[in-house]
């Protein structure tokens, strides 16, 4: 069995330009926010994800899919371009306290060998980070996840996302992102997917300083995600994060959120989202070229 490495999910430049379509209930809420009359059915989510995979994967180095709504369908429909690698999310979202994702466990229904057979190269795990929850529990989940990936020759991608503590209302998001990196930035995964400091806002220098601080604590290649960042600010965020040491992005909303709920999805993805993804890919290549 050949072991996949992060080279299998990068562009020829060595940078990551990866697309996420693994949003679940969050995507349903995006349809409602876009004015789509409820109910937003599972099929509507699946159709959007499959369309996004077909239209956008030729411009991505990898695409992240979820078991719940689209993994089977993209495989059966050959929706992913040959030049693009498949990443499968193995996070099972547990709702609670009025939010769709209150906690996360490893989804035991995802079979790593089946993922390989279907052409998958990597798995991704969301790790919710709260200052008042047990770090040991998070670390042991990440360790189990890494073992699952590496025993099956797959790349392991962790995605620590910070949340306010369960108790009390003191929450410093920026500090939490750093603290999560201190805890999980050397946890043996192959790639670290992180929230952009300052949500991509502020001066270039402020963003650079915050990103450099983050870089100091991540002892593996890292990429930024686009959730929480205004899509107009995301290209700059990629460029600044890469100046600080990141190697690209794994993002969905910055690419396709503006076309959610519009009629003629395929056309809108082609006309609106493809140019965004192409531009982001160019930024990644430009920034990687500067490192040589």
UniProtKB/TrEMBL annotation:
Which InterPro entries does the protein's record reference? DeoC/FbaB/LacD_aldolase, LacD_aldolase, SFP_aldolase_YihT
Task: Please write the reaction equations for the catalytic activity of this protein.
Answer: 6-deoxy-6-sulfo-D-fructose 1-phosphate = (2S)-3-sulfolactaldehyde + dihydroxyacetone phosphate
UniProt-annotated catalytic positions: 193
The alphabetical list of record keywords is:
Carbohydrate metabolism, Lyase, Schiff base
Q: What is its EC number?
A: 4.1.2.57
Cited function: Cleaves 6-deoxy-6-sulfo-D-fructose 1-phosphate (SFP) to form dihydroxyacetone phosphate (DHAP) and 3-sulfolactaldehyde (SLA).
Note the subunit structure.
Homotetramer.
Write out the similarity annotation: Belongs to the aldolase LacD family.
Name the UniProt record assigns to this protein:
Sulfofructosephosphate aldolase
What organism does the record attribute this protein to? Limnobaculum allomyrinae
Which gene name belongs to this protein?
yihT
């Amino acid at each position: 069995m050949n072991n996949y490495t992060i080279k299998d999910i990068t562009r020829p430049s060595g940078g990551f330009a990866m697309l996420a379509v693994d949003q679940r209930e969050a995507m349903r809420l995006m349809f409602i926010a876009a004015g789509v009359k409820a109910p937003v059915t599972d099929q509507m989510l699946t159709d959007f994800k499959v369309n996004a995979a077909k239209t956008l994967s030729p411009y991505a180095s990898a695409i992240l899919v979820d078991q719940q709504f689209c993994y089977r369908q993209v495989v059966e429909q050959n929706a992913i371009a040959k030049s693009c690698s498949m990443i499968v999310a193995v996070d099972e979202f547990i709702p609670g306290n009025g939010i769709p994702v209150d906690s996360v466990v490893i989804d035991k229904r995802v079979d790593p060998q089946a993922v390989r057979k279907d052409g998958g190269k990597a798995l991704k795990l969301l790790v919710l980070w709260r200052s008042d929850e047990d770090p040991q529990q998070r670390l042991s989940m990440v360790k189990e996840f890494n073992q699952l990936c590496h025993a099956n020759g797959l790349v392991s991608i962790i995605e620590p996302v910070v949340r306010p503590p369960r108790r009390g209302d003191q929450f410093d998001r920026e500090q939490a992102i750093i603290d999560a990196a201190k805890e999980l930035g050397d946890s043996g995964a192959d790639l670290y997917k992180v929230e952009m400091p300052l949500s991509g806002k502020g001066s270039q220098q402020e963003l650079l300083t915050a990103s450099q601080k983050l870089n100091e604590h991540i002892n593996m290649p890292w990429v930024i995600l686009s959730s929480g960042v205004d899509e107009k600010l995301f290209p700059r965020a990629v460029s600044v994060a890469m100046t600080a040491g990141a190697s690209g992005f794994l993002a969905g909303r910055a690419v396709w959120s503006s076309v959610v709920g519009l009629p003629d999805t395929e056309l809108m993805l082609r006309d609106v989202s493809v140019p965004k993804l192409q531009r982001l890919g160019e930024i990644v290549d430009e920034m990687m070229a500067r490192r040589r």
